[in-house]
Amino acid sequence: xxxxxxxxxxxxxxxxxxxxxxxxxxxxxxxxxxxxxxxxxxxxxxxxxxxxxxxxxxxxxxxxxxxxxxxxxxxxxxxxxxxxxxxxxxxxxxxxxxxxxxxxxxxxxxxxxxxxxxxxxxxxxxxxxxxxxxxxxxxxxxxxxxxxxxxxxxxxxxxxxxxxxxxxxxxxxxxxxxxxxxxxxxxxxxxxxxxxxxxxxxxxxxxxxxxxxxxxxxxxxxxxxxxxxxxxxxxxxxxxxxxxxxxxxxxxxxxxxxxxxxxxxxxxxxxxxxxxxxxxxxxxxxxxxxxxxxxxxxxxxxxxxxxxxxxxxxxxxxxxxxxxxxxxxxxxxxxxxxxxxxxxxxxxxxxxxxxxxxxxxxxxxxxxxxxxxxxxxxxxxxxxxxxxxxxxxxxxxxxxxxxxxxxxxxxxxxxxxxxxxxxxxxxxxxxxxxxxxxxxxxxxxxxxxxxxxxxxxxxxxxxxxxxxxxxxxxxxxxxxxxxxxxxxxxxxxxxxxxxxxxx
Length: 503
Description:
Blueprint: E1 29-31, H1 106-119, H2 123-126, H3 135-145, H4 179-194, H5 198-224, H6 236-239, H7 241-252, H8 259-269, H9 276-292, H10 297-309, H11 313-323, H12 326-330, H13 339-351, H14 357-368, H15 377-388, H16 414-427, H17 433-446, E2 472-474, H18 496-502
Parallel strand pairs: 1-2
Helix pairs in contact: 1-7, 3-5, 5-7, 5-8, 8-9, 9-10, 10-11, 10-13, 11-13, 13-14, 13-15, 15-17
Keywords: Signal
InterPro entries: TPR-like_helical_dom_sf
Signal peptide: 1-35
């Protein structure tokens, strides 16, 4: 009886010759406390290490004739039906506001009021008063900035009511559908209602812009200077409260901020994306930025995180699809996609039920095709665990819909695991014990077995047919045979520096 091999040492890898120590997909973790053999042997591996390996497979024991190095390394493909999967509901972004004449949130308003009162007394703001601006102008501007009603003018910006509007990659483009035209119309309605002069409107615009600058400076000081013991604790959420009101007043007035001002707002708001309100507001600012200016990696990542926070997986995928367009690639926008761009959406899919496993595999395949996406061990394990916990890596598992359409030779089973773990082995030198434990628990969950809080001690007993092996084992330094699975691992000599890297 022989088994699928989880890891087989790989000799022709970029990282030179490194020991193939190994999380048996059985998640058998290889450990050897014996001295290294002179012709190559395993060193001590206390962490779960993924070294250069040729194959990693589920040790759901089954027969293979070649030296225990079984399993076919297949390439799986994943085609998903639609970007909308069960249990992933879309929440539209709405900036089409027709609020009653109500007050702002008291805490937000108090923070905004205090910030504006301080700002309009500042030398920077008062320096705006030139020969065409009087003290009376300052008072009028102050009165409008401190109007505690929301909104005075209904905000009508249709392009911002869609999570993934078509971006104007050419700045200054003006037509009936452009954000510039819509802002101009909003601005005209605002000025008609308020009777502000051009210079007064400009002062209001500068004040709202300076508000973002001041909040961003406070965030910078908060991040760079630890708070003193005994001092009141100030959080990023409290610092950016004024921007909640300032952002709405900016839209109400139809202001077309420059890229620097929008980036400042985005920097401040994204300092605390764990806050739901900041997350949503940061997403609006990022969307607005991408309509007025060139998108960048920061704005795209914030938009996706904001959409995912609202459960809008479809909107997040549409943003990614937009970046795949030919026009985006011509403008160099394809390079903005990084690992952190995809991670919020991938985490959402991985956290849901079996019905979204197809989305996990499809998005993973899409990420692997991007040269700018550099995977880490945690992301690989997250993908493997999400598929494993629903039992798709075991023999007899139902196929994952669309997998073959993506190019994989199989849609489930140990061979599918082989492919993904092989890709991980090509990228990752090692995984830590937390990652290995996460994968172990997911495998047991997929087999409806109780999760293990710790790995079992080696017992030296050969695994039975179909048994899931998840235990620490000692690999014989001369034969390289795993006593639990019968797998023979290739021995590679570790140099001194490589040993330190492993440990």
